[in-house]
Structures
1.
Amino acid sequence: MYLIVGATGNLGGEICRRLAAEGKPIRVLVRTTTDQKKRERLTSYGVELVEEDVCDRTSLDAVCQGVKAVISTVSSIPFSYTPDANNIKTVDTEGLINLIEAAQAAGVQRFLYTSFTMENDFPLRNAKREVEKRLKASELAYTILRPSYFMEAWLSPAVGFDYPNAKAQIYGSGENPISWISLIDVAKFTVESLDNPAARNATLELGGPEALSPAQVVKIFEELGGQAFEVQHVPEEALEEQQKAATDPMQASFTGLMRWYAQGDPIDMQATLAAFPVQLTSVRDYARRVFVAS
């Protein structure tokens, strides 16, 4: 039995779909507030839905019984965040530590945790590093997946990359390379990590097949879309001031992510790809896909 926590999100849902396609027995943790359509999508894969919350430590003991591996992609940010209930402290830190403790108590063999590469100081990053530390100190065999910036999020209108209208908001100069990665590829690495010896007690930094600056990404979208982009730059100094002025941990975290983006995030994937046979999605592949869909 595989327990997936965070399956209502895009990455967790893709991991769930892939495991179900392989005929794996899956248990999925959902909250009482989970949207009915998301529940129906998950049950269509033939999974077992369990209505519990990572914030409730005692309930997780039963959830983890009979589980071979826990896969966690859960986070309060961005969709389930509420300042007083589902937040970085209660979910991304305490909730994940609850899950680690319950998994260890239940005799779970493996724990796969989705973190990220970003290293500057902001609440979500600090929560993820604390969870990584607790996971490494546990008795669980672990895999920590640290992807760079998801194409589906950071090259989308949600964060200012409005390709349908040929407009892009770029953080910083736009000249520093980033190893943009598709969440579909992160799902592939996650599933592959379950049985690949190279993933045991390992931290995998994940990026796409090439590191491209935001300016280079814009040129690819202009070429494939046949339209020049209107580009607006947000200076690093402005992002720094925004982060200093932030009164909410989610706001501070998003600004922290934007600041790391401005600095660039290149990742050498040569050694990782030698151990994991994953065909990576390029930015050009992603752009073709979204233009066809739009």
2.
Amino acid sequence: MANGYPLAAIAGKKEIMDRFNTNTEGDVCFQGTYNAHPLCLVASLATINVLENEGVYEYINELGLYFRNGLREIISKFNIEATVCGFGSVSTIYWCHGPFDNYEDLLKSDSLKSVAFKRAMIERGQYFVPVDLKRIIVTYSHTKKDIDKTLKIAEEVLKKFR
């Protein structure tokens, strides 16, 4: 919400939210280290402004699709038993074939291959959280050139997964 600055929000029905002591009539204590901290609020407003006015979602969704399609091509090229899934800027690789109708279907994924792939990517300078079923996120700071570099490294790594 504030692009890395400490900020959180809580929301609810008016009759419940009005009970917090941030309201003069409130009878429930509500405290936080950064409550209404000006720097955090300015960061949040700046973040919202960028999100609303710079086409962020379109950009990251396009890069996410580009990344997934590139991974799919590599996996197909090497005939690897894996499925690339995702939506928008979020991607993941399941080290098995679908269909994926529920969470139990995802548990068929080979967690050892998943972690091995992510560690191999880390060793080559691409940080993928080395936990099975953890997502890969494309951010607004990434470029198509970054994605191409990541796909090239992924191809080198996946070549060994045949």
